[in-house]
Specification:
- This protein is of the alpha+beta class.
- Helices cover 38% and strands 22% of the residues.
- It contains five helices and seven strands, in the order βββαβαββαβαα.
- A hairpin with a 5-residue loop joins strand 1 and strand 2.
- Helix 1 packs across helix 4.
- It is globular.
- It starts with 18 loop residues before the first strand and ends with a helix.
Amino acid sequence: MAVCKDDIEILKPRTDKREYRRIVLKNSLQVLLISDPETDKCAAAVNVGVGSLSDPDGLEGLAHFLEHMLFYASEKYPLEDSYSKCIAEHGGRRNAFTASESTNFHSDVNIDGFEEALDRFAQFFIKPLMSADATMREIKAVDSENKKNLLSDVWRMSHVVAALFWTLFFVN
């Protein structure tokens, strides 16, 4: 199950009544559990330490493309888009984003749907399925997003800053 390699104190404000616990799984996945008895929702998030700066030359957008693809289906739940339907049926939401150095996947649902939603969520990282049809749709979707973003000064500036940072600290 869980093995915590080191005891880390989690600092929180005195007014925060939630309970926190950090565990490290056998596969080295670090987990932060938060219990809040006053909420009517359960949530899960995974932050992967790979973002757009990790894209190989010639495959720019790969991290963003994979962010899109993971939500489609898994070996255990092969029906395309069944995760989104499960989340909606249980009053939840799901989303993801790709940043320069990480990709984040997150969702929340009503308490009654959490176990099923969490199992479906986990399966994307265990055995994702990526059909040819979904692949072509998402290549077009990511390309469309990129073309839209190219017109945004804020988006372009953030990429210039990221490229300068990368060059200053990781090249040479």
